[in-house]
Amino acid sequence: MASRKNRRGIAWWALVLLMAVLILWPLVNLEAKMATDTGAFRRALDYPGLGSALVNTLVLAVGTVVVAVPSGTALAWVAQRTPPRMRGVVAFLPMVPLMLPPVAKVAGWTYLLSPRTGVINRLLRETGLFSADTGPIDIYSMTWMIAISGITLTSFVYLFVSASLRQRGVELELAASAFGANGWQTFRRVTLPLLRPALTYSTGIVFLLALGQFTTPLLLGGPRNIEVISTVMYRVASAPPVDYAMGAVLAVPLLLFGVLVVAGQRWAIGDERRFVAMSGPGGRVGTRSSWWALIPVALYLGVAVVLPLAALIVVSLVPYWSGRIDVASFTFANWDRALSNPTTQEAIATTGWAVLFTVVIVVPVGYLCALALVGRSGAPRLARRGVDLLSSVSLSMPAVLLGFAFLLTYTEPPFRLYGTTAMVVVAYVSLMVPHAIRPQLSAMMTVGPEYAEAARVGGAGPLATAWRVGLPLTRTGIGVAASLVVIMVVHEFAVSLMVTSPGRRVMGALLYDATNFGTAPQIAVVALLMVVVSSIGIVAAVLIGGTRSLERT
Amino acid sequence: MSGVEIARLCKTFGGDVPAIDELSLAIEPGEMLVLLGPSGCGKTTLLRCLSGLERPDSGEISIADQRVFGDRVEVPTHRRDLGMVFQNYALWPHMSVVENVEFPLRYRGRLPREERRRRAHEALSLVECEHLGDRLPSQISGGQQQRVALARALVGEPSLILFDEPLSNLDYRLRVQLRQQIRELHRSLGFTGVYVTHDQTEAMQLGSRVVVLERGRVAQVGTPEQLFRSPKSPYVADFLGIDNRVALERKREGWLANGLPAQVADGHGLPEGRYDLFLRASDISIGTPAAMAGYGVTLAATLHDKVFAGEVTEWILQLGDTRIRAVSGHHDVAALVGERVVVGFELKSAVVFRSEASTPY
Ligand SMILES: Nc1ncnc2c1ncn2[C@@H]1O[C@H](COP(=O)(O)OP(=O)(O)OP(=O)(O)O)[C@@H](O)[C@H]1O
Ligand SMILES: [Mg+2]
């Protein structure tokens, strides 16, 4: 009896160990460099522009929160008031931007808003109201970086807030207006306080994401030397010989902030499982609905998806980009050239393999972790805490920081994986574990334990039970996890840049190369290829998981 | 033949109040043992310990003469040769009805596919659901789902079948119907079963023997007749529905019932002192003083309410500061609500406990 119990315990501890090796070890390994190299602290302080990078990081993060949280909340509130017939589709629309790779979006916006050749700037100048021959909008400024990252992260806020709104329905607001409160009073006194958990959670997440964000500051801050911590870390990582010890020092503020935000959220909302339960059945009581409510949703979709995507398509079809759209000159030459280029082909293949291997590894790992977290699997309590903690560590550390740590750890012995697809896969897996856990966990929580118990009583062992009952019943959750992982891996930029070698690029890295050495149409083609690859991945994941997986993402 | 032995079983969750407390019990082969008790007394926990879904802290369990727990042995659930019927059916929603029923056969010897199908259909016809084989569980009614779950528990002819309140999600009519069906299946198939319920009618009708649990311990075991005739404690009496409680006191100068004077023709030799009487509603009569003259105990009460309930009529009587209930098939007592009536019963038909000790007199 005792030995059986221990053996089961050991399997769970092995899972914790695996997660610790994947997530914790690189970080510990990196920070340990600091201890052995006493000069690192000095070098970090002397690093040119570190002070302003710190300030920029904070300004960008706070600004992003200020843009994203109100607009995401408003969008969720408005989407609930669209006519009932449309609500199913409308509810999903504000999440569409999440399916577009951020790099592609940023590239698209530069074609719209760059000071000299941006289409929108050109149109504004043609109105005659502006005298200069550049601008009036400068996308390479802090203000517009905040705007762009705010627009991007609005979708996240929408995701959390709308789940919370849907779950509790509108009865409480109706009650308030029945007692004579007007619209604004109802919103302030009823809606807002009830949304506090969702708002706290999304503010935390958005702040964290904005703090560690990399794509926008790298692509938009570069030209004017607006650096943030994550771009500084990237510069350190890409200047051989890499000064890991100094990078470790630079990582400390990001690390501390991550820990603080996660701790704060747990304190404010309780554990993850309470959050999962927030996606309940929709409230069916009618609100006053209006077609006007569609306008903000359409506007957001236009700004966040349609405009940048259209810009990319147009630019990918012109021979060279001057900011003028001349339909007669459209050509597929850029596409032909890119697709016949062996570097592009290899990057597509590498991305494809990396995504495939990552999904195949991380979804089962996430399944086991979710199983451990459900708490009826008999996983030891401490092991459960371990899984929970490690997954939130991975969630709260900026990708740049993790990428830096991976670069160090997997370049060194005993791994020595630099230049291989394996290194990319290991890095992606570590990054994606929490995203693979959550959908599967919530699927397991809705299913309940009796089905598995009935199978055990019926004579099926643990493996047979998992195969015949557990897996089929969590299929939707598995599909969601797979599609989420595909989307996020294809979109991943920071880690991709850091852990791929010049000989083994993934598409994100290829796109960055193009922004440095290529022409605008080349960039646009690669960005669109990323969109295509991630769409294929999403479709494949939906086919595995059933059609319901997307709406749960 | 198979039976179950449970010895000194203990199980405590988190806190310090045990859910199962040093419980010992023997279940005879072919017996349907009903576990009865109020919510939270440990019925489900005991059942889950038997199935291996819960691990006891200590004690021993044997099923069919095979040790499944205790003495450094713990046989996992799937090797205990069990069947189980769950309160919420727990039919796997992604398998058809016949696939559900066939499931336990996959793991009992190597049966060819056709043989499995044949036996599954046989089990389904036992519960009159043979025509539903190809449907999904979501396409059949609640009552049918529970019948199918029953077939699934029976199909492998396990040594022990566990029932955890299988009827409590069904409406009244279905409950009665299915209860009778389980009773008949038990009689014809002769399986050993443990049946959890908190409904005393169900317990009485299904149990070969009934166990009343009280805070994780056995309060009393016996056939339904034994329990109903002589409950060992007020707790058991109360739980079996013998819930008319009268405080009787014998003083030198006479008798008091709930503090009011009572006429006792036959005191059955009770010494002076206080007693708690538990009376079945059917053992209490009411009528005019003349009609009640023949009863061993008579006392005056006020008719509080009269409830016509079809086959019987219920009279709610105010007796001092408590109410009691009388039931009879005679509907023709002429008293009106609010009037004084005379209540009569026999002391020998009551269950009598000494007040302080709660021990049967
Ligand atoms: N998983 C658990 N964790 C903690 N306490 C539990 C757990 N399961 C049961 N208990 C406690 O053990 C005691 C017995 O519970 P059990 O479920 O066996 O009662 P029951 O007799 O089946 O009640 P019911 O009629 O309501 O189903 C209760 O006090 C309950 O709160
Ligand atoms: Mg129970």
Automatic annotation (TrEMBL), chain A:
InterPro entries: MetI-like, MetI-like_sf. Gene3D superfamilies: MetI-like. The keyword Acetylation does not apply. Residues 54-261, 348-544 form the ABC transmembrane type-1 domain. It is found in: Cell inner membrane; Cell membrane. The chain crosses the membrane at residues 12-30, 50-78, 90-112, 139-161, 198-220, 244-269, 290-321, 353-375, 387-411, 417-437, 478-499, 519-544. It is a multi-pass membrane protein. It comes from the Bacteria. Signal peptide: none annotated. Keywords: Cell inner membrane, Cell membrane, Membrane, Transmembrane, Transmembrane helix, Transport. Its main location: membrane. Belongs to the binding-protein-dependent transport system permease family. This is Iron ABC transporter permease.
Automatic annotation (TrEMBL), chain B:
It comes from the Bacteria. SMART domains: AAA. InterPro entries: AAA+_ATPase, ABC_transporter-like_ATP-bd, ABC_transporter-like_CS, ABC_transpr_FbpC, ABC_transpr_MalK/UgpC-like, Mo/tungstate-bd_C_term_dom, P-loop_NTPase. SUPFAM superfamilies: MOP-like (SSF50331), P-loop containing nucleoside triphosphate hydrolases (SSF52540). GO terms for molecular function: ATP binding. Keywords: ATP-binding, Cell membrane, Membrane, Nucleotide-binding, Translocase, Transport. The keyword Nucleotide-binding applies. Residues 4-240 form the ABC transporter domain. This is ABC transporter ATP-binding protein. It comes from Phytohabitans maris.
